[in-house]
């Protein structure tokens, strides 16, 4: 099959890690008989340099017309790079908000997986790390508290601030459907996280999730209060498969879940909209401190490309092959500098890309 991928290398280490992910996709293409056609798109600081804005309408149009978007990272150093002299809406990171909005992405997927070879980086108790974990947080991205009406005013002489947490049933249904579809590709278990003992929006959330669950009889569903979930993530993370939650809870829980894996260069992510089009990017940033030195870890971006294969192209076998190659690389003791430990083999960014390709 042929797939058109819009590629956004971006700034900092972006171009280095994206070119390794493309190399991996091409290896998958050769092995499984697919062709990936790439169209380069400028976003972030490089787009400001070329066009004066972090994302042009043409660039967004190219992304919209593709089958999926692969992004490295955008951004530079505040106080050093001249992009930060611009107003906030023209800085590199504004491109991220613009593309997410322009593509109508409402579901953010952040897997958290503990590789047994990197267990020592996990900050949890040894017996918890020994049990391992493999979960994906599905976070609603365009509603809730971050997008509700807000104001700050003086009421009876007292400064008062109000934020509104609002969800309608359609917003909840579409993200719940995504979470159940994802669960069908995994271990068929959804834990829906809310605060239904206090919030009306959470009570509606859990009602709609139970309605959606009826269409997915193979998937087991459980509700968990967000405060309990925060505890369970550090106490017994092995219990989670798909965690479905609203915007703010997801913001916090996905960072907590990332933290317990211990290695930022390994964390992939995806943002999905109504159809199959998705934006795939590592969870880390542009790492300007190591840019241009061929020492970034490309695994988060390679695993994001694997998510693209699975969720935008429905190529599950191919995605499995990439994930297995990453596991094999780690088993074989190959490491970039960020995950290096004694007795292992240190490789560059390109060296890691090559090592993954050899194992596909
Ligand atoms: P960062 O994730 O870029 O870097 C944090 C630390 O982790 C740095 O020491 C960096 O060297 C290291 N690191 C990150 N990715 C790595 C990798 N793949 N391999 C090895 N080491 C890696 O976060 P930051 O320093 O807070 O941000 C730097 C810039 O990136 C800022 O301009 C920020 O706005 C931007 N940023 C962009 C995105 C994005 O594009 N989605 C996300 C976060 C930050």
Any overview of this molecule?
With 360 residues, the protein is of the alpha/beta class. It folds into two domains: 1-117 and 266-360, Isopropylmalate Dehydrogenase (3-Layer(aba) Sandwich), CATH 3.40.718.10; 123-260, Isopropylmalate Dehydrogenase (3-Layer(aba) Sandwich). Helix content is 40%, strand content 21%. The chain is built from twelve helices and 14 strands. It has helices at residues 14-32, 45-51, 57-64, 94-102, 126-131, 169-184, 200-213, 226-235, 247-261, 299-311, 316-331, 349-358, and strands spanning 2-10, 35-40, 68-73, 107-113, 134-140, 150-155, 158-163, 189-194, 220-225, 242-245, 268-272, 278-282, 334-335, 345-346. The strands form three sheets. The protein has a ten-stranded mixed sheet, sandwiched between helices. Strands 6-7 form a two-stranded antiparallel sheet. Strands 13-14 form a two-stranded parallel sheet. The longest helix has 19 residues, at 14-32. The radius of gyration is 21 Å and the shape is globular. The two termini are 18 Å apart. The model has no long low-confidence stretch (mean pLDDT 97). The structure holds nicotinamide-adenine-dinucleotide (NAD). The site of nicotinamide-adenine-dinucleotide (NAD) has 22 residues, from loops.
